[in-house]
Specification:
By secondary structure, this protein is an alpha/beta fold. The chain has two domains: 2-158 and 312-345, Quinone Oxidoreductase, Chain A, domain 1 (Alpha-Beta Complex), CATH 3.90.180.10; 160-290, NAD(P)-binding Rossmann-like Domain (Rossmann fold). Helices cover 24% and strands 26% of the residues. It has eleven helices and 17 strands. The chain has helices at 42-48, 98-101, 150-153, 159-169, 185-196, 211-217, 229-233, 251-255, 279-282, 296-309, 323-331; strands at 2-8, 17-23, 30-39, 65-72, 84-87, 90-92, 113-114, 133-137, 142-143, 177-181, 200-205, 221-224, 238-243, 258-266, 287-290, 315-318, 338-342. The strands form four sheets. Strands 3, 4, 5, 8, 9, 16 and 17 form a seven-stranded mixed sheet that branches. The chain has a six-stranded parallel sheet with strand order 12-11-10-13-14-15, covered by helices on one side. Helix 9 links the parallel strand 14 and strand 15 (287-290). Helix 4 crosses helix 10 (296-309). The longest helix is centred in the last third of the chain and has 14 residues, at 296-309. It is globular and about 60 Å long. The two termini are 19 Å apart. The chain binds zinc ion (2 copies). One zinc ion is lined by residues 41, 43, 63, 89, 158. Pfam families: ADH_N, ADH_zinc_N.
Amino acid sequence: MRTVNAVAAPSATEPLIRTTIERRDVGPKDVLIEIAYAGICHSDIHTVRGEWGEIQYPQVVGHEIVGVVTEVGDEVSSHAVGDRVGVGCMVNSCRECENCKAGLEQYCYEGNIGTYTAVDRDGSITQGGYSTHIVVDEDFVLRVPESIPYEAAAPLLCAGITTYSPLAHWKAGPGKKVAVVGLGGLGHMAVKIAAAMGAEVTVLSQTTAKHADSERFGAVAHYATKESETFDTLANTFDLIINTVSAKLDLGAYLGLLRLDGVLVSVGAPPEPLPVQVFSLFNNRRSFAGSSIGGIAETQEMLDFCAERGIAPEVELIDADQVNEAYERVMSSDVRYRFVIDASTI
Ligand SMILES: [Zn+2]
Ligand SMILES: [Zn+2]
């Protein structure tokens, strides 16, 4: 075991504090990573505040991790000391169910082992990336190409893959019209990736305040969802809508924007059930779907795609002392577009 610095939540109601945690010894298939940067995901905040269920405290969160390999186990073959690597939302899975065998570990029937708050194979609770080091099985460690700016790479491990996976699955590309609902951490990556795939991208945001940013990220149009005429103007328009917001959504209104065989995919998770009028699915043979992060192979594909196309998240770099303030700013949507913690300050 080694003791490393971390920033942890002591309870659901107290601010995060500096502390130390134990990391397991490097096993034969493990990689020790010295963390350089860790992104702050909205899920981190919901989790530490107990909003997604009770958890054990103290808890370290963070599942957008990049760093450098500093030690490898005897049987490790895919990573070497000095490599720039990343870790996303999961650190293991059963590896035997049909979804794992298909490379879709995020949909493991046993439940994938999350990077934080999950019960690890040794019975301990996994602790996330707001820390100086982490030990992870090599099969759940990604290669982060050097051409991706180091401090901007971390959010690709959650925000990037969460949007890339449905865009790839539902074949965003030339000739396809894609709408992105919400221009936050997830939404701005959805716009950049969909545009790079060749799709015609429209942003649907509450107001037009971020119109210039939408265009800078590659969107051709930006509409305010507060204006009811938006839903008339854009009726029967899109092949694919990616909903990135966690707030309650009028599903019928958004389904009405889909053309024939169009799909509305939610990657944002409102806490309460959403009612759907089935007639709005009959029209244009529409679908309503969900999607969760991506498999390890697809996450690597996403990183390589972003490196080739020169795509990276927009980030605001902070010190460990600014995490609580950053949480408040995330909650009030006052971030353009992702906070990243400089792990050297932890
Ligand atoms: Zn996340
Ligand atoms: Zn499995």
